[in-house]
Amino acid sequence: MAENKESILKRITQYRNFGLLVGMVILIVLGLIITPAMFKVDSIISMLRNNSIYAILSIGMMFVLLTGGIDLSVGSILALTGVITSLLMSNNPGVPAIVWVLVSLIIGALCGFVNGFLIGKLNMIPMISTLGTMYAFRGLAFLVSGGNWLFPHLFTSGYTWYAEGNFLGIYNITWIAIILFALAAIFLAITRPGRRIYAIGTSSESSKISGINEGNVKILAYTLCGTLSGLAGMLYTANHAISFYGMAEGFEMQAIAICILGGVSIVGGKGRIDGVVISTVMMGFISYFISLLPGLSVWQDAIQGGIIIIAVAINIITLKMADKRALKERGALI
User: How far apart are CA 271 and CA 315, in angstroms?
Assistant: First the structure.
């Protein structure tokens, strides 16, 4: 019995996101003590809804980070797509809303392909190229919108249904994020393109020797990231029933933070979708928790940053301990 308990404990501590889970538990305990109101069912459902956009962006960002790249343009792609789809929707209210979902996917994919081509084929530095497209896409959003805003009365019920509708008490936008997490997990775990995304991030040279076309894989990763950012743009405007060219500024940093907090390596090759799921929920809890504390909302960014640093530090220590144990076990077998 004692050996079984030790085995279970060992498996738990060897879990690569154990540190993140510990941080999550600590946060939940603090929340229950200080602000128990945040754990009402309606509050949790609302929190998940408000963080679903970050979840979708984080999935796309994970694909890019796994290749060893980065995409600073996801917020601008969101804004450009949201502006275009909402304008088309308001001018053509009789068109089924599913059409605008497809349009958002196409626009996002085109933007992502541009990033992927610049990086995968022209060998531009990811940070520099996506910084450029970040401003370019944001500028296009301004030109398309003319600097004007769209307000709630211009949004059709079919369009907003993708965010406001619900199934089993959970908003549709949250269900979409959950489905995308599941699809991303399957894609990365069992498909050849998914494994190749990991491969080029782990070792560019080894992947080339194996016959993997690194440029094409990067184009795929950035196109997927753009596609998800485009979908997020349509869902963002549907969720808030508002559209303007300046929306989602800084969202790229939030998506990057969620991925890093979830154990995705900034240099590529390492990261799991379950870690991103946990970190997305954790970031949502952190934001909501701080917003409920009187006088601390102005310190939200600073507190959030500090918690992220602590959680990442715990995760790094946990990963190092797991690696050491793995090395010892290999040594024992040899």
Answer: 12
